[in-house]
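Structure first, sequence second, as always.
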């Protein structure tokens, strides 16, 4: 066995001190929005399940309310971050290890908007829920399209990407259009019939294509990095589950498009979208479960080697949640109980991951460690030990 050690990550900038028990907004990065999406998907995915347990719906409403509070607090905190530390905010855009996380804010807006329409309507009413989701969907979709173009542009023109540093994090700016494609059809019945509905539906289908084709470009790079350079560093290993995001969300998207199509487009296209939900969803969800098994094995390996807690653990939540909604969409369109059972099993995994990650995040937040230390775990993706036999 031989070992080849890549150059270590550069030292932490002096502007971001070593962890200490003092909270500072200077190092509050866009990756924190992953906590919002991971919380909102617990409510949305739970509402999609055919469960009628006592108090279950009330618990989902509570989770939705928590996601709204988290989003509001984080939006305010990030606004202060930009106002007080504009140099740091601009530096994040120039940093290839941090810039891809700019895809998290649009996803947070979209995820909370969908949860508001699906679950929050129990509290605020249908009209307010539709209005809130429409605003969050519009802003989130626009911001997601910007990140889908701007971050790859920066990667090509400004960032210095070292060979072998491809990362699942690169998918983050490409996923928001797929999230829009998955949650947008929920609004179709609430817009005027005719041109408006058809435009919204086909627009969501176009967003599906944008994200899908971009994902197909990045996924081979990620797998190639794993094969040629070995496992990710321990703290970054949970990022492997980010691959599930575009996969599960795309299955959800075609399912939602198939549900909304009959009232928005003509019969031939409506039937075709309904068929696509099965013809596309079955093989892609199968691949998603294969990747979940592979990523899970890598996480177990990393945990046995002392994988530390980091904000990358939130990758255990939203990506898995998209598989829950994708499996439930297939259960609706095929009528097969196996997909319903898979959705329930994945949801149990999602809730367990959310509880563990949430508790660990609160502990790190109250101790000041998470905000005192810069979010640098993904940087280690370009600094690892390559082992060959």
């Amino acid at each position: 066995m031989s070992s080849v050690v890549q150059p270590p990550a550069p030292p932490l900038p002096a502007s971001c001190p070593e962890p200490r028990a003092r909270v500072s907004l200077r190092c509050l990065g866009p990756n924190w929005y992953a906590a919002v999406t991971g919380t909102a998907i617990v409510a949305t995915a739970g509402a999609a399940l055919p469960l009628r347990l006592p108090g279950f719906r009330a618990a989902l409403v509570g989770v939705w309310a928590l996601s709204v509070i988290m989003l509001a607090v984080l939006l305010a905190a990030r606004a202060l971050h930009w106002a007080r530390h504009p140099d740091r905010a601009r530096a994040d855009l120039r940093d290839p290890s941090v810039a891809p996380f700019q895809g998290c804010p649009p996803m947070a807006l979209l995820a909370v908007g969908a949860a508001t329409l699906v679950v929050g309507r129990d509290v605020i009413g249908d009209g307010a829920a539709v209005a809130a989701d429409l605003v969050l969907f519009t802003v989130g979709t626009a911001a997601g399209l910007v990140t889908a173009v701007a971050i790859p542009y920066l990667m090509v023109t400004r960032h210095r990407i070292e060979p072998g540093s491809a990362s699942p994090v690169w998918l983050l700016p490409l996923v928001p259009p797929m999230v829009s494609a998955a949650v947008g059809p929920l609004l179709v019945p609430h817009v005027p019939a005719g041109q408006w509905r058809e435009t919204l539906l086909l627009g969501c289908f176009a967003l599906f294509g944008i994200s899908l084709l971009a994902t197909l470009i990045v996924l081979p790079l990620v797998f190639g990095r794993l094969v040629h350079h070995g496992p990710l560093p321990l703290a970054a290993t949970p990022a492997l589950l980010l691959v599930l995001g575009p996969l599960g969300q795309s299955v959800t998207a075609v399912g939602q498009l198939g549900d909304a199509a009959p009232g928005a487009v003509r019969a031939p296209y409506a039937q075709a979208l309904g068929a696509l939900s099965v013809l596309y969803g079955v093989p892609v969800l199968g691949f998603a479960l294969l990747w979940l098994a592979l990523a899970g094995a890598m996480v177990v390996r990393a945990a046995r080697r002392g994988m530390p807690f980091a904000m990358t653990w939130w990758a255990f939540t939203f990506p898995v949640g998209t598989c829950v909604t994708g499996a439930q969409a297939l259960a609706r369109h095929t009528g097969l109980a196996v997909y319903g059972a898979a959705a329930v099993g994945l949801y149990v995994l999602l809730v367990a991951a959310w509880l563990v990650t949430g508790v660990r995040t609160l502990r790190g937040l109250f101790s000041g460690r998470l905000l005192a230390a810069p979010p640098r775990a993904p940087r280690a993706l370009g600094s690892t030990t390559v082992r060959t036999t």
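Margin note: Strands lie at 2-5, 385-388.
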